[in-house]
Amino acid sequence: MFCLGLLALLYVRLLRDDLILVLGRVEKPPARRKHNALVLAKTSSEDVTWAYALKPHWKPYIYTSDKEPGYRPIPANKAREGMAYLTHIIEHYDYLADVTAFMHASATQWHNDVGDTASSSLLQNLSLDAVNKAGYANLRCEHRPGCPVAVRPFDPAMESNHNVVYRNFTSIYMDMFSVPREQVPTEIGGVCCGQFVLTRDRIRERPRDDYVRMRDWALATDMDTFAAGSVFEMLWHIIFLEQPVSCPDVQQCYCELYNICPEIDSGS
């Protein structure tokens, strides 16, 4: 009789343990849902309703340079979209989205070189797998303007250039990246025009303090907002740790980022 009771007790305990295991599987917290952020830099004249239509695939973070209610503020109207982009990174550094696209606010852009030039179409056709694999990608594929070389900082012609950006580019680069003159690249080139997409991990490869320093430079510079903004346009790819000259093959860019691939002649 004692043996039967012991067997019954063991059976109950086994049932209980199995139940705990099952419940343990059921009660595991769900996997974190991935999300993508869309950072826009707008003025009061720009309509951004198109961005909200992309939810839930893209969560918009819209910054305004004109102190409009309902939108996110920036510290100062300087460096064009650069101020909004850096502010977003600085303020969200510890909880960035898996993928973040940084774009101008207008619904269409001349430098959107896919389809109807609509920003929404660009994002809808974008391959997130390609972005996650690369870490960083300019949203434009065509090389002009910006490639193959946008500026040669040590070219003697730069010192006499009437453009304040080119004339002071070497010192600007040294200040922005906190590097000695010897670390300034001899050639810099990248696809324009201040629109790109990258992963959280790529953003965090650079410490937050670097982005703070770059924004502080923009806040302190005597350059007008257009000139300061053009500095960032030439440097975004370096800021996000691409090579100083970063001009991906155009056809490969279209094919990998947007699945617009050349037809392959299979022969007769």
TrEMBL record:
Q: Where is the signal peptide?
A: 1-17
Please give one Pfam family short name.
Answer: DUF3431
Under InterPro entries, the record lists:
DUF3431
Q: Which UniProt keywords apply?
A: Signal
Protein name according to UniProt: Contig An14c0130, genomic contig
Q: What is the lineage of its organism?
A: Eukaryota, Fungi, Dikarya, Ascomycota, Pezizomycotina
